[in-house]
Design a protein that fits this description.
It holds the Pfam family Iso_dh. By secondary structure, this protein is α/β, with parallel strands linked by helices. It has helices at 18-36, 48-55, 61-68, 92-103, 126-129, 165-181, 196-210, 222-231, 243-253, 294-306, 310-325, 343-355, and strands spanning 5-14, 38-44, 72-77, 107-113, 133-139, 151-153, 156-158, 185-190, 216-221, 238-241, 264-268, 274-277. It folds into 2 domains: 1-105 and 263-365, 3-Layer(aba) Sandwich (Isopropylmalate Dehydrogenase), CATH 3.40.718.10; 133-255, Rossmann fold (3-Layer(aba) Sandwich). The strands form 2 sheets. A 10-stranded mixed beta sheet has the order 2-1-3-12-11-4-5-10-8-9, sandwiched between helices. Strands 6-7 form a two-stranded antiparallel sheet. Helix 1 (18-36) crosses helix 10 (294-306), helix 10 packs antiparallel against helix 11 and helix 11 (310-325) crosses helix 12.
Length: 365
């Protein structure tokens, strides 16, 4: 009897360096799948600028349906200078927003790790950032980005921050569940001293915590949290935030490792998970085989976590760390006197080391 597990991945390479970095993520997925007893079938679909050029819209119906029918979605990046003059629904980024809505994802997960091998690449002191391992859990579909009413009012403008109890409760549950798998500590970030909506946020998060007494909870105002992320990032385990604060804090923390090319993300909570690197399409280096694929590869590790292949996900992260420990660096991380590894060469190294990291006592699938 064949017990091999299989997963159908909707592969959305996108624009710029998206095809290059996600290709290496698929290479790693195939390698760890073979080692851990499962297979991955990736089917390519258009989104963003590439979709606009081919179909006239940033999210073709065929792409949307393929994503909804898949086990997971792996996305590269969207956008580029050739579409800068596009407006409204013809913006490449509209495709991504529409896809998130179609999938129903509401929880954005952004891990920020600083391996000891890369502590020296950070703009902060190595002894301050080395060993950092933070998971930002950001609410993705509410808050000021989606609140109404909004718009221009005479000579002014208005945007409304709004959250319901249900929206806060469901994202809080995600944070506490993730903390149980990690260090058991949640820091909830708000501005409850001046914002009514933050008062509600704090009340609901505290109520959810009553059902999770095994997890430690503390509250921080967002301005203090920003200072603490830079001053002592290793104090954090899981950081729970609303949409606006999460956007700002996770981008701030992105500076800790020294390169956006290291940071993955996952958007989950809906019918199908969406996994993508934090970085953009970097059109200035597209097609040169010099981009850092680490963020895309680590996004693939998050994908494996979500489909239940946690041992393979850990193997991917081990493969990245092992390649870095061995001295492999892409151009964004290499010192002036070091030879930089290409996108594809780094991907091959990670794939080999990830596949080789299967424990000797691993159960037969």
């Amino acid at each position: 009897m064949d017990n091999t597990r299989s997963y159908d991945i909707a592969w959305l390479p996108g624009d710029g360096i998206g095809p290059e970095v996600t290709r290496e993520a698929l290479r790693v997925l195939e390698a760890v799948g073979s080692a851990h007893g499962f297979s991955v079938t990736a089917t390519e679909h258009r989104i963003g600028g590439a979709a606009l050029d081919e179909t006239g819209g940033p999210l073709p119906g065929s792409t949307r349906e393929a994503c909804l029918e898949s086990d997971a979605v792996l996305l590269g990046a969207v956008g580029g200078p050739q579409w800068n003059d596009n407006t409204g629904e013809q913006r490449p980024e509209r495709g991504l927003l529409a896809l998130r809505k179609a999938l129903g994802v509401y929880a954005n997960l952004r891990p920020v790790r600083v391996p000891e091998a890369l502590a020296g690449a950070s703009p902060l002191r190595p002894d301050r950032v080395g060993g950092t391992d933070i998971l930002f859990v950001r609410e993705l579909t509410g808050g000021i980005y989606f609140g109404t009413p909004e718009g221009r009012t005479g000579h002014g403008a208005r945007s409304t921050m709004a959250y319901s109890e249900d929206e806060i409760e469901r994202i809080a549950h995600v944070a506490f569940q993730r903390a149980r798998r990690r260090g058991g500590h949640v820091t909830s970030v708000d501005k409850a001293n001046v914002l009514e909506v933050s008062e509600l946020w704090r009340e609901v998060v505290t109520e959810v915590h009553d059902d999770c007494p095994d997890v430690t909870l503390r509250h921080l105002y967002v301005d203090n949290a920003a200072m603490q992320v830079v001053r002592d990032p290793r104090q954090f385990d899981v950081v729970l935030t609303g949409n606006l604060f999460g956007d700002i804090l996770s981008d701030l923390a992105a500076a800790l490792p020294g390169s956006l090319g290291l940071l993955p993300s996952a958007s989950v909570g809906g019918t199908v998970g969406l996994f993508e690197p934090v970085h953009g399409s970097a059109p200035d280096i597209a097609g040169q085989d010099v981009a850092n694929p680490t963020a895309a590869i680590l996004s693939a590790a998050l994908l494996l976590d979500e489909v239940g292949e946690t041992a393979a996900a850990d193997a991917v992260r081990h493969g990245v760390d092992a390649a870095l420990d061995a001295g492999f660096r892409t151009a964004d991380l290499a010192a002036a006197d070091e030879e930089a590894a290409s996108t594809s060469a780094f991907g091959r190294e990670v794939a080999t080391r990830a596949a080789d990291s299967v424990p000797q006592n691993a159960p037969t699938p």
